[in-house]
């Protein structure tokens, strides 16, 4: 059984209007939320053995904060294709995951994560989690999917959404 964890970057700063989107750093709220979500991963035993991270500054900073909380963080792969990806583009990147990885964490952006989650969710997904996800996929939000098969076989409707966690759930 494979586990896919989709984590949206933590809250970013809009303070410097002159910065390109790619170069926006985390805001103080994001700096607090990322470790909180990582501790939840640890508490639940959802430890990634592979990570794909968008190379944007806010996602790299989110990863650094998450990795600091993990007992044995994997070396991340910074995947250019995650930044500004569509749902289909995200699927293409995930299909490249290492075959040996049982739990993959993908750290990226909206709207791709939200759109991809809707595309991937099977009919037997947890209905409450799916409903909350469709309302809003907030910064530092986390979706957990499970599926049987290989990463390169992943496709629409192929994974069961089991959880959708938001930072506000753990205040």
Overview of this structure, please?
The protein has 171 residues and is α/β, with parallel strands linked by helices. The protein has a single domain (2-170), classed as Phosphoglycerate mutase-like (Rossmann fold, 3-Layer(aba) Sandwich). It is 32% helix and 19% strand. The chain has helices at residues 28-44, 57-67, 87-94, 112-120, 127-135, and strands at residues 2-8, 50-53, 76-78, 103-108, 142-147, 160-165. The chain has a 6-stranded mixed beta sheet with strand order 3-2-4-1-5-6, sandwiched between helices. Helix 2 links the parallel strand 2 (50-53) and strand 3. Helix 1 (28-44) packs across helix 2. The protein is globular, with a radius of gyration of 15 Å. 38% of the residues are buried. The model has no long low-confidence stretch (mean pLDDT 96).
Structural descriptors:
6 strands, about 170 residues, Rossmann fold, globular, alpha/beta, 6-stranded mixed beta sheet
Low-confidence stretches: none
Shape: globular
Label the structural class.
alpha/beta
**Radius of gyration, CA atoms, in whole angstroms:** 15 Å
Percent strand: 15-25%
- As for the CATH topology, it is Rossmann fold
Q: Provide the CATH superfamily.
A: Phosphoglycerate mutase-like
Order of helices and strands: EHEHEHEHHEE
Helical residues, percent: 25-40%
Report how far apart the termini are.
31 Å
Q: Identify the strand order in the major beta sheet.
A: 3-2-4-1-5-6
The CATH class label is Alpha Beta
Give the oligomeric state.
single chain
Could you tell me the mean pLDDT? Answer: 96
Counted beta strands: 6
Largest sheet: 6 strands, mixed
Give me the CATH architecture, please: 3-Layer(aba) Sandwich
- How many individual helices? 5
